[in-house]
Amino acid sequence: MKILSLRLKNLNSLKGEWKIDFTQSPFTDNGLFAITGATGAGKTTLLDAICLAIYHKTPRLGLLTQSSNEAMTRGESECCSEVEFEVKGKAYRAFWSMRRSRGKADGKLQGAEVELAEVEGGKVIASQAKKKLEEVERITGLDFDRFTKSMMLSQGQFAAFLNAKESERAELLEELTGTEIYGLISERVHQHWSESKQTLIALESRAQGVQLLDTAYRESLNEELSSLKNQHGTAKKEKESFDQCANWIKEKTDLAAELSQTSQSLINAETALVQAKPELDKLADAEPAEQIKPLHDKLSDIQNTHRQYTESLESLRKQATELESECKEVDAEVKVSESAMQSTKVAQQALEDLITQTVIPLDSDIAQGKQKQSSLQSEIHEKNNKKHALDASYQQLTTKLNEQSDTIAESEKFIEQNANLKDVAPKLEGWKVQLTGLENSSRELAEIVSNLSSLGIQQAEQLEKQKKIESELELAHSELKSNKEKELQLSSSHQALSGASSLEEMEAQQQTMNQQVIVTHQLQGLQERWSLVSNEQQQLSQKMAQQESELKLRNQQRDSLREQYKSQNELAQSLAQLVTQEEHLAVYRSNLRDDQPCPLCGSLEHPILADGAVSVPETIAQKEEAERRLSELKHQGEALSVEIKSVEFQLSENQSKLSAGQTELEQLQLQWNQKLPALDTTIDIVTPSSAAILTASLEEKVKASQSQISQLKAAERALEESQKQTSTLSDKAVQLENQLKLEIKDTQLMEKKQQDFAERKQKLEAQRLEQRQELQSAMSEANLKVPDQNVELWINELKDQVDAFQNKEKHLSELRHSVTLVLAEQKNLDSQQSELTDALNQLQKHLVETSDLLNERMAKRAEVFANKSVDDERLKAREQVAQTERSTEQIQIKHKSLKEKQASLSGQQSSINNSLSNTTVSKSQIQSEWEQALSSSPFDTVEQFQSALLPIEEKARIQQLKQSLNDSVTQLKAIQESANQKLSALNCHEKAPEWNDIKLEDIQNQQTEAQRHLEGLTKREGEITQELQSDDKRREEQSSLFEEIEQYRVEYDDIQYLHSMIGSQKGDKFRKFAQGLTLDNLIYLANKQLSRLYGRYQLQRKQGEGLELTVLDLWQGDNERDTKTLSGGESFLVSLALALALSDLVSHKTSIDSLFLDEGFGTLDAQTLDIALDALDSLNASGKMIGVISHIEAMKERIPVQLKVTKKSGLGISELAPEYRFNP
């Protein structure tokens, strides 16, 4: 990056607009230049302007904002800065400006205007502050901090890196080289390692928590599932049977209710039909009237039509009479209009003959006369104008001739009066040189007098300043002594706090205790889990004992039920056999007869007949009771078997849980034993809260250790601050001693300068007197005296007088020639005036003749046609004819329209007469038909007929009522028939006899019980299926889980290895490693610079101290010294080497081709200063442009190219040389 040019306006003391082009001479001739000027003149302002244009802030003021702008010149309303710089061969322009509102010095600050653009083409890259800074950093690779530490070293920044603490030096290295990415990488690696570790622990925990069913239990579940499926089928069929029965009973009940409701509704409908009979009779009575109603309506229509025809015929007759009268009136109007139209046409023809034969010829002659008259008048006016112009020209020539004559007389008089100036012109340049020399001598003499006076004042100030420095030096020595005593006390306090252990050992002990606290927290978690699992194991053991007792009881109950079932089954079978035998014996008994032998025993006596019949139904009832009891025992046994299997399953499951719990307890004990050695103590996992007690104890120790470490760090910081202050005070004392020596030397230099100025003054006074006498002798010949002051003004005035004399002579010759020319021109004008007067007289005569003829013709035209216009009169005549024609045409149209209306009325009368005749005939026929129909109807009069008719709405209502009642009866009868048919179908069902005696409530209870039983089977079936599927899934997941753990462990091993090398929570490990490499590179570059600057010292890293620096004294057998032991001048040289190395280090992003150094050379002696300047010359020779700000006279003498900043006395403002003032 190279600075090409700088333009600034109204910044600090530099008022006005200035531009420095570093691509022009003298900067291209010598890349090393000095920025010089008095203290406060504004030298550093130039560097501030560069920073403002590129980064909107300065090292001294920071960021300039709308609320704070201390850089703008006081009393100004705007300021700006513009820098052109080059990166990689491409030029860019950075601009910054800020102004106050309304252009007033007390106006409110407005927001800054910024811009970054390409110089070639002017393409704008950014016009917003944030975007511009991002683009600058992208293009240059430098942010503000890197820029001010690599290209522009501002005041106090030389030793910033050398004297920085380790942490501050690390931050500087990060800012300069962009190595902050290494800290982020270290933090990310640590975060990745922590996440991977937690993930692996979670996977291993999942693997330990997986529990599988044993094979025997799975087989028992499968057997139970198969049995449940069979039971489910049987229960489903039973449920469906109950559902059919319930539906049959419910449907039959619903049909009976529907049939009853329908019968009642049918009775209600028939009753409504009877109640509506009066209204229905009205409808029946209206039917004869409705039959003859069309004929009556037809008669009414024909009567209305006959009446309308009669009225229309009477109206047409009236209209015909009125139309006849109107036609007569219009006939008269037609005749009058036609007569008026003929008269108008005759008048128009007479007017046209007058215009054609008389008026138009006169108008033509008048127009020609006026045209000729106008032409003559124009020609006369033109001739008059030309005559006036000639008169004016003649007058001007006369005036000019008089003026030139006066000027000639005046010039001749001036030449005569200033004849002595004729020979001055050749000598004027020589006199000017001599007078300028005299003025310069006077100015130099005045400057010497002023310098002598100023030196006297400065000498007094110097002596005062020297006394002040001596006082400050004495105070510095006193403060240094006091601070060393304080440092000794702090060192004793630090030693007392640290004791036998160092801070690193204490921090290591604290780290060990922190790790032990983590382990105790883990042990506490293990102990809590162990206690929880132990309690669960005890509860499981108690629950299993209860379940075993319950299982034993259930087995005993099932054995008892089996014995009862066996006995009951034998009883049921014997009763069934007995019933069968009784049925056969009953047949034989029925065939027994007295005195006949028994077919079984042959006996003739039959006592059974005397005792009565054997009670067979009672035996059947006993049999059915025995079968019912047998069924109950069977259901009880099945239910008990289900309960036994459930208890066996629970017992097996609890046994698995007990085994898993025991395994977990063993794992917990194993983990406990693995972690316990890290604590250097022995505690039992069985003892409650032993880990918690140990944790509390260790945490107390950690707090105590942290407190002690904090105190020790505070003591170290205080000691370090005191040591730093001692070093600062020591440097200050050395600096004051050097400054005192310089002040003494400056006093001696002032005394020598005073003597030199006095000698120079005496010599100049003698030389000036000799030159003045010689010049006065030469000027006496032209009657001139040497001026005492304002020589340049006197020379310029004399030169003006000489020039005026020469111009007068030249102008006099020109005037004499001009007078001759004017006299000739006057003679020519006299001839032209005579010719023009003759022509005007002739034109006036022709004009009079033409005007007389024109007036005669105009009088005749007025007599014949007055002042009327031919076109207007013709137009009026045509309009009158057209108007009479339109009026006649309108009347004729009206007449024709009336005739057409008469014909139309006549036709309408004829048509209506015919229609009236036809209507009269039709009316008689219809009247006859109506009277015949009325006589045939049950009505005697028309009034009876009309009263029998019903209104349309009433008729519709009664018809709708009749239809509704009839439809309701029909529909209810159909519903009744359908319900009877459905009821018959239900009674025909095969199980109807069986279902008739069953109550709906009973069958619904059986339904509910069957549904509950079915749901229980379904639920148990689902539970077993779910348990088996879960076990299958756990078996599958366990296999994949172990594979996942193994794969993840490989990945974890990689990240753990990476973490051990570069990972840390705060990113310190990798950051320090990268910064160490960067520092080694920086030391290498700095030592290369030091070898050219000052071969005595070399830098190196302090062994085992991170980023600390030391210096090797090559002149003292490579003795290693602390950087704080360097003197002020040595510290400056080392710092300068580091600054140049930092600049080279940053050049990996951007080549640094410009370097600005602000102060820092004041602590160097003459020899060291020569060394520093030689180094700067060598850098300049390598192609860098280097600008140096300093007050040192030796530097000003060594650096020929200087950019001077001059203070204006008493104004508080400064300026550069005139060639740098910018004029847009």
From TrEMBL:
Q: Where is this chain compositionally biased, Polar residues type? A: 881-891, 903-917
Bias (Basic and acidic residues) ranges: 549-565
Q: What is the lineage of its organism?
A: Bacteria, Pseudomonadati, Pseudomonadota, Gammaproteobacteria, Vibrionales
Query: Does the keyword field hold Kinase?
Result: no
* Molecular-function annotations in GO: ATP hydrolysis activity; exonuclease activity
Q: What is this protein called?
A: Exonuclease subunit SbcC
Q: Which GO terms describe its biological process?
A: double-strand break repair
Q: Which Pfam families match?
A: AAA_23, SbcC_Walker_B
Q: Which residues form a coiled coil?
A: 299-340, 616-671, 695-849, 958-1020
Positions of region (Disordered): 484-508, 541-566, 877-917
Q: Which UniProt keywords apply?
A: Coiled coil, Exonuclease, Hydrolase, Nuclease
Residues in Rad50/SbcC-type AAA domain copies: 5-262
Against SUPFAM superfamilies, the record matches this protein to:
P-loop containing nucleoside triphosphate hydrolases
Compositionally biased region (Low complexity)? 489-503
